[in-house]
Design a protein that fits this description.
Order of helices and strands: EEHEHEHEHEEHH
CATH architecture: 3-Layer(aba) Sandwich
Helix content: 25-40%
Structural class: alpha/beta
CATH superfamily: HUPs
Distance between the termini: 36 Å
Strand content: 5-15%
Shape: globular
Largest sheet: 4 strands, mixed
Strand order of the largest sheet: 1-4-3-2
Length: 240
């Protein structure tokens, strides 16, 4: 699919990218390269490598919510790394409604997704892959259950909606195609890619932080000992 037609200028709060799409010469994909996540860096490098061979232009969207001191410099470093990998970088600074219902995390997510969708339309992108892993999926389900969401919580994070997709969550019920957070950190380390640890993820006042650092490790602990953990599911053998 070629890049789409011209779109309206970027909304106030975006920076680091032109206000009109690039010429419609090749299809493109935009990776959401959040500076605080190892799940973004290595897949972006892979997408650049594959895209070059498929005639696919790869771009990176770095979202700076502006909620922490020094976030602009962190976003700038992430953009520089993305361009070193071969992707055109766009730093987005959407406005977060701090008074919105659902709390700060929900408001930031809404602002982030709206900005990414707008960028996808503006740039004529085929998709905007996000870097959520199986760990994020587990956290989301437990958080929703803790808030009383009931059976609806078991649906977890959607694998795709609009231009946004989450390829690391696997395909359907097949988790062998998915990645864990530790997988992405190991890959980044092997390829000398840096990431920034968001201090909000270590805040004990945050429900997500408590689920990530207390509930999930406890649930994953095998009472038979550290060497008796269940292996990751394997692919089912196909027909002969």
């Amino acid at each position: 699919m070629p890049a789409g037609p011209s779109a309206p200028p970027s909304p106030s709060g975006s920076s680091g990218s032109p206000t009109t799409p690039a010429p419609a010469t090749s299809p493109r994909a935009c990776w959401s390269a959040s500076p605080g996540a190892p799940t973004r860096s290595r897949p972006l490098a892979t997408t650049c490598w594959v895209g070059e061979r498929m005639g696919l232009a790869t771009e990176a969207a770095i979202v700076d919510h502006g909620l922490q001191d020094g976030s602009a410099s962190v976003a700038a470093r992430a953009a520089a790394q993305a361009e070193r990998l071969g992707a055109e970088a766009h730093v987005l600074t959407p406005s977060v409604d701090l008074a919105a219902p659902g709390g700060l995390e929900n408001a930031a997510r809404t602002a982030r997704h709206d900005a990414l969708e707008h960028l996808a339309r503006e740039r004529g992108a085929l998709a905007v892959p996000l870097g959520h892993t199986l760990d994020d999926q587990a956290e989301q389900v437990l958080m929703a259950l803790a808030r009383g969401a009931g059976p609806r919580a078991l649906a977890g994070i959607r694998r795709a909606r609009g231009h946004l997709s989450r390829p690391f969550l696997g395909t359907g019920r097949d988790e062998t195609t998915a990645l864990r957070r530790a997988d992405t950190e190991e890959i980044c380390t092997l390829h000398d890619l840096e990431w920034w640890e968001d201090p909000m993820n270590a805040d004990p006042e945050s429900l997500r932080s408590r689920v990530r650092h207390r509930a999930l490790p406890l649930a994953a602990r095998d009472p038979r000992g550290p060497d008796r953990r269940e292996p990751r599911p394997r692919r089912r053998p196909g027909p002969p």
